[in-house]
Protein: Transcription factor domain-containing protein
Amino acid sequence: MSSLHFSASLPRKENQDASNGSRTATSSTTSVAPDHTQFLAWPYIDGRISSKHATIIAADLVHRIHVELQDGTESAFARLLQSLPLVIENSPALAAALECVLDTQALLSPVPYHQGNIDLKLYGKALRSLRVAFEDPKHRFEKTTLAAMIVMQRIEALGNFHGGSPHLGPSYSAFHVRGIGKMLSCIGPFPPEDDVLFHALANHAFPILLENVANGEKCFLNSPEWTSIFTQRQKASGIERLLYQILVVMVSFPDLLITFRNQDSKLISDPIVEEQAYTTSNRLRIIGRHLDTLLRYPCEGSAMAVSSLRPTCDISTIRNIDLLHVVIMHAIGCIVVNNMLAGMSSSPAEIADFTWRNVCLSKRLWKLQKSAKHVNIYPTALMLSFESAKFQETKDWIVQTMNELQNRTIENGSRLWTEEDLTCRCLMFTGRKEFVLEERVLNPMDSL
Structure:
């Protein structure tokens, strides 16, 4: 039994010939453009997806993940997918989404952009199946429907929509992030060992936080019931636990920034805000000491001492992908908190100290430009480091790197990042009153 196409070395369905307008089999070295003239047959049995068809998709998924693990390039997305073959059979929405992502070939890779071409027919089927799932009260808040939405978000964030609007992917990707957050809040706190729901939460907690910050909304994750899911997770390595500790700290950021903005606008005066910010800063410093210890081990990464060299001249490497995520996430959290503390301080010496800390964190991020270029949160970190850039050369490098990482070019019709855009976005994360929500110049999720 042949399987769906998921890499250049595997054939597409061989039981469909060119006479009915479907795609033909390919060799290991030949890529055939998809035929968009017809829909592939979608096998339903009594309103459910065919068991045989679901088995084919699940088998492809397992094999693709196995290949990825052998290459040593496991992505966070692949970790989520590892649990899905067991639940795919009764979910047409999930099966359709996975069929689309497997056809797109490279979306399981941690490398963003530039790779997968979306089959618009399979993409349309997946969206339609997801809509049907939402219209059915029995399936609306099932974890398989949530998983289908996550897969669609991945497709739209990283895929290449040939023949369509260049803004289609990022725009719908942002909508799906909001949908993922809404679904998780409706599902409610769950057992930490539920792999599908846990990886859905862990992989999207940060994008959800960004969306809340951008829209001035409180975050549903900022409660003991939700944070305990991270702290009670048993199946986690030491580095993963550090990442979860950072997420537990950062879920308070949307609420803290809202309060800080109101205080900065003289709408309220809450002395507790400063105490909360300092507490958050201290917790991040403790995590930072653990990170500094890990970064001294040759098996994890090279030394990360701060230097005065400009970013294009100073490169460091972290080989462990989980540790790389922790370093970037920790820097993001510290920069945001330091900006808040600097905004609340009236002491020039304290303000200078917080500014210096952010410069050190930013230089650490710049040194990781080669290791981190495939990490989806790295553009956000670069954006926050923009205020620490003292040389015009560094500012130009950040703008250029942001555009390259997100495949923003004049040729594909994308809007390019500018210094003004990055400055405005930095204000969004400081809580300062200069930032006005109505004046956002770009989609809040564009930095992902």
In short: The beta strands are 44-45, 48-49.
